[in-house]
Amino acid sequence: MFEQLGLIGCGLMGGSFALALRQAGLVRRVVGYSKSPTTTDQARRMGVIDAEAPSALQAVAGSDIVLLAVPVAATEATLRGIRHLVTPQMLLMDVGSTKADVVAAARQALGDRVGSFVPAHPITGKEQAGVAHADAQLYRGKQVVLTPIERTRTAQLQRAQDCWAALGCRVSQMAPDTHDAALAAVSHLPHLIAFAAVDAIAAQPRGDRFLSLAGPGFRDFSRIAAGDPTIWRDILLANRDEVLAQSRAFREALQALEQTLVAGDAAALEGAIARASAVRGQWRMNGAPDAAPAAAVAAPAHLAQPSGTGPSPG
Known about the structure:
The structure is a single chain. The chain is of the alpha/beta class. 48% of the residues lie in helices and 12% in strands. The chain is built from twelve helices and nine strands. β2 (27-33), α2 (37-46) and β3 form a beta-alpha-beta unit. It is elongated. It starts with a strand and ends in a 32-residue tail after the last helix. Mean pLDDT is 90; it is low at 289-314.
């Protein structure tokens, strides 16, 4: 499908995309760029890329598909740096976990060339960051949300759909703001809560003792609190309006539960727990049977190695 992939960000997400394209026979050559020469050197030695580019612009030169696997905060500067090599025939995508800010950055940086850009969010990842953990199977069976805008070229949108589908992904489309509202509810707020819960325990005088007694429930609940601080700072700030809206809804639900405890209302407490249990019991990730409770849950796309183009997914 493609002659050359220009990979800007050779971390987990970008490296896995390159490997997946290779394995599917969809690309002939991969040229990669990262601010860290160590990262691109490792990517080349692993066979993730064929050649190291000294700049993002030179990774784009001669490429008919370009993937930005950089922190969302670095999107505008990166796009501005490659703008004059973006052509109407090129497919340009990102893997950022917020989309309204990415779209705004693309409009600003690309101007009349924004039609080649198809914003994408593959909902997958690993806890282990970096190109060393790149995996050709990372995207298989996972959801990818495309958030095209009115200026996105129909041909490029179709190529993006075909590309992700060829990697075994379930592809859907939605508006950028709808995407951000949904991810605030099911990803960003849960991370915020996990950070707060772990921090609250650690701040108590007997916090270390409490943590020493933690078992599988705490492990499963708190796993996402181990996320990269810089990445999650950027995500939460980028989507703060939607995260704050979800936080308000959560506080209302939590206060309602607290009131049942204060009142000693066993029936109301059981009813609230039963409702949540039923919803969770019916939920299936990607529409598949739920994993065993002890299984590790994939981290979102932003938990990847910094590409070196901005603050530390990849």
